[in-house]
Amino acid sequence: MNKTTTALVGDYFQKKAELQEFNKKAQDKSAEAGKLEQQIGALTTDINALQMKLNTAQKDMRWERLTYDEFLQLKRDMEEKSEELNGLIEALAEKNKDIAVFERHLNSRRQRVSESKNAIACVMVDQFAGEVVALAADPLKNLICAIMVSKGLNNGYTADEKGQFRDNLYWAISEAILKTVFDDQAVPAIPIPDSEQADLQIKDIISKIAEAQPELIN
């Protein structure tokens, strides 16, 4: 593994650690919001119960089921709990604003991790291409020549036809190799791994690099 890959892998795990830290903070903030919601729910239940008592207070006092002092206490309780509820609602609104801002920062961290992983994959493309050529340069040359002949491709194209010739040749080479490597795919007409499989494969390679060099994640 070259120095560029090593540096990129180290950067990837650093950004991943930052993301994990942000994820933990996001979970804590969500838990705080959840507690506020529970308090609001419980207090709303209490206020509804008080309101029901106040709705019948005049009749209850006439029938001496409620004293005037108890009525005044009910009103005080209602005022206190209503004020407390308003405070909780405001606190929850502020907490949700904080979470929304934090979520944007969290998405930015996720994007950085993804970009870091993609940068490693870009280096791996050249690395793995070099390994393949080193192992099978002559078979690859033979394959390309066979494809050009079998497909009737030749380099007698005009300037306008250059792009089409290149695309046809690249696709034919890719198809011949991919059909052999990924012959078990669910869609044989497009013999490639799905994006999730490819992503997991690269993550697995990065993890193995880190296992070989633990200092990259410390």
Write up this protein.
The chain is an all-alpha fold. The protein is 83% helix and 0% strand. The protein has helices spanning 3-55, 57-62, 68-150, 162-181, 195-212. Helix 1 runs antiparallel to helix 3 and helix 3 (68-150) packs across helix 4. The protein is elongated, with a radius of gyration of 33 Å. The mean pLDDT is 89.
Which band does the percent of strand residues land in? under 5%
Please tell me how large the radius of gyration is: 33 Å
Poorly predicted runs of 5 or more residues: none
Whole-number mean pLDDT: 89
Biggest sheet details: none
Assembly level:
single chain
What number of structural domains do the residues give? 1
* Number of distinct beta strands: 0
DSSP helical segment count: 5
Q: Helical content, roughly?
A: over 70%
Structural class by secondary-structure content: mainly alpha
Shape: elongated
